[in-house]
Structure formats: C-alpha cells, structure tokens
Design a protein that fits this description.
Bound molecules: thiamine diphosphate, magnesium ion
Distance between the termini: 51 Å
Oligomer: single chain
Strand order of the largest sheet: 1-2-3-7-6
Shape: globular
Number of helices: 10
Order of helices and strands: HHEHHHEHEEEEHEHHH
Number of domains: 1
Helix content: 40-55%
Length: about 325
C-alpha cells in the first residue's frame, strides 16, 4: 500500500522529520560510545517511517502515547532536539527536568504527549483512559497509542483492546512489529505472527502495513484516527519493520541472523522514501541539503544540552505526590 494523501511540500516535510530523527539517533549512539553522559540509548534506526508517518497523521488536538523507539513522533509533535538531548543528558532543561535520562517519561501534555511508562504495556490502558475522556466530553479527538510486538502478548494489551472495542473508543493502537522483543523473535513468543489478526478477537478492524513505507503508515494511521474521531471505534494497526540495532546500545544483537538484517537494510525507510522522491523529480542535492541542515540542528542541540545546567537538588521532590 503506497497510496498517499500528502502534497509534494508535505512529503518533503515528512522526509525532513525522518532525516532529523535519523541524525539524532546516529549522534545519540556516537555520544554514548564517547561516554558523554547519554542515558537510555534505544536506537530508533529502522523505525523512522513509523514514528514520523504516524506522528504526522495526528490532528492538533489528538493525544499520543509514544514509546522508546518513537523519537520521530516526539519531534513531529513539538519536543525539540534541544530538549530531547537535554533529557538524555539529565539536564534541568530536559523534558523531565533531569529526572529520567531516557525516552521514558518524555511526556508533555501541553503538546498532547503522554509520557512513556517503562513498564510494558502500561501506557496502553492510560491512553485508552484519555480516549474515553474525549468520548465522555463529546470532544472530536482521538488517541494514538504505540506498543511493541513483545508487549502485544501481555494481559493489559488484550484487556485494553477488549474495553476499547466494547466502548467504541476513539482509540488507535499501533503495534511496532520490529521482529524482536529484546532477544526473542516474534515466532518464539506467539503463534499468531500476523499481529493485526489479534483484532479479530475483539471485533475491530486490524490492519497490517509496511512499516518502512512512510506514506503507507501515514495513510493507515490517518484513516484509523479519522474513523475514531467520527465515532467509528478503535483500530489495531500492525506496522512491520526491523529493529536495526540491539534492544539498547549495550546489546550487540549477535542473536539476529545477518541475512535477516541485510534483507531489511536493503529496504531502509529513508532510502525507500528518497528513491520515491527522486522518481517524482526531487534532486538528490536537495535531499542532501536537508540532511546537512538536520545534522547541523542536531549538533547545535548537543552543544546546548551539554552546556545546560544540572537540576537543582533542592527540587528533587517537586512533582512527587507522596514524598
Ligand atoms: C513489564 C515489563 N517487563 C519487562 C520489561 C523490560 N523490557 C523493556 S523493553 C522490553 C522488550 C520489549 O519488546 P517489544 O514490545 O517488542 O518492543 P521493542 O523494544 O522491540 O520496540 C523488555 C523486555 C519492561 N519494561 N516491562
Ligand atoms: Mg519488538
């Protein structure tokens, strides 16, 4: 499925977000290797079409609950690279004010982002709660919730889908099927490797989409969100991709067969989109220019984050409700 509802200008914007996501990711990994204080380092490589395509499909008033590999969604939604790097470096200027050096907790309700909860898949029912609040208030808003293939085997995933379906919640659940849950391949944790089929058990639509095709992801998520806002109920979307690096940076992923990686590397989401853009008349020079600007923006963010202050220890109990 490669149908697109994007204009030429929008396609270039989407491409720019994908390049920014990739540039951020590469810089984050390099900084970690240099020992420059980067916290939880979950590479997003391979996930750019999902996080950007889905994030781009959100309406301004929608709410999203991203996960640890959804940097693109955070960026599209308005978390700047400055704040994201400051978060990873534990600085006061980070999204959590230095409380979590991770993508965990990187929520900002003013931007419609529910902070990611480390426990899997605990953001999923929280996101359903937000969706139900829109229903009860009669607001035409929807919630997009992300989860992983591994987390889709947990009880909460199923309980949430059951309730969302029963109540026709304005809720879209996107499973990022990146073939692995840490070191466990999908076929070793479920018999139903076609994860979109899980929707059948709840009487809602289940859609499987090429997670390396940003326009396909965008189209599927947009359709599901539009439907949810109009009262059509929830959709389960499976976006198939590959986690191109280890679970986190300390994991060398030696358990992944090289041939599997090579197969997916040949379908890199950025390259796929570049080929399509070039085929429609965009010059490679223009694309490289976008890449260079993204790298410069990322570099500026690193300098800013490293120059930012540490949190004031006197604020340690701020935001703690039962100190
Ligand atoms: C309840 C719970 N158990 C274990 C973990 C540790 N953990 C974090 S991510 C992860 C793997 C998740 O795999 P998947 O859902 O496929 O997401 P992916 O990392 O591949 O994007 C595990 C086991 C956790 N965070 N929460
Ligand atoms: Mg996974």
């Amino acid at each position: 499925m490669t149908e697109t509802s994007l204009t030429d200008r929008e396609r270039l914007e989407v491409y720019t977000w994908m390049r920014l996501t990739r540039a951020f990711d590469e810089r984050m990994v390099a900084l970690w290797k240099q020992g420059r204080g980067v916290g939880g380092t979950f590479s997003q490589r391979g996930h750019e079409a999902i996080s950007v395509g889905a994030g781009w499909a959100l309406a301004p008033d929608d709410v999203v609950a991203p996960m640890h590999r959804d940097l693109g969604t955070f960026l599209v939604r308005g978390i700047t690279p400055l704040r994201a790097f400051a978060s990873l470096m534990g600085r006061a200027t980070g999204v959590t004010g230095g409380r979590d050096i991770n993508f965990h907790g990187m929520g900002d309700l003013s931007l419609g982002i529910i902070g990611f909860i480390s426990h899997l898949p605990h953001s999923v029912p929280v996101a359903l709660g937000a969706a139900m609040s829109f229903r009860y208030r009669g607001e035409k808003r929807a919630v997009l919730s992300f989860t992983g293939d591994g987390a889709s085997g947990s009880g909460l995933f199923h309980e949430t889908l059951n309730m969302a379906a029963l109540w026709d919640a304005p809720y879209v659940l996107l499973v990022e099927n990146n073939q692995y849950a840490y070191s466990t391949p999908v076929h070793e944790h479920t018999k139903v490797t076609d994860l979109a089929r899980r929707a059948d058990g709840y009487g809602i639509p289940g859609v499987s989409v090429d997670g390396n095709d940003v326009e396909a992801v965008h189209a599927a998520v947009k359709m599901a969100l539009d439907r949810a806002r109009e009262g059509g109920g929830p959709t389960l979307i499976e976006a198939r991709t590959m986690r191109m690096m280890g679970h986190a940076i300390h994991d060398g992923a030696e358990y992944v067969p090289p041939a599997q990686l090579a197969e997916w590397a040949a379908r890199d989401p950025l390259q796929l989109f570049e080929e399509r853009l070039v085929a429609t008349g965009v010059s490679r020079d223009d694309l490289e220019g976008i890449g260079r600007r993204c790298e410069a923006e990322v570099e500026e963010a690193v300098v800013w984050a490293e120059g930012s202050p540490w949190p004031d220890p006197a604020t340690v109990t701020d935001g703690v409700y039962a100190p």
